[in-house]
Amino acid sequence: MVAPLVYAATGEQLSRSQSWGLGLLGMVTLGLSIYLFFVMFVPEKF
């Protein structure tokens, strides 16, 4: 699911492993951002 999205978003030729790496890096970055915003706004749960 991740690799085809990266292929479609980039005009250059990337290997499949590079596409997976970029996709996973984006998902980790997004998840970490959501987690940190949640921690900032609801700190008493942590």
From TrEMBL:
Transmembrane segment boundaries: 20-42
Keyword annotations: Membrane, Transmembrane, Transmembrane helix
Record-level Gene Ontology MF annotations: P-type potassium transmembrane transporter activity
Gene Ontology cellular component list: plasma membrane
Keyword Transmembrane helix: yes
Protein's recorded name: K+-transporting ATPase, F subunit
Taxonomic lineage from the root: Bacteria, Bacillati, Cyanobacteriota, Cyanophyceae, Nostocales
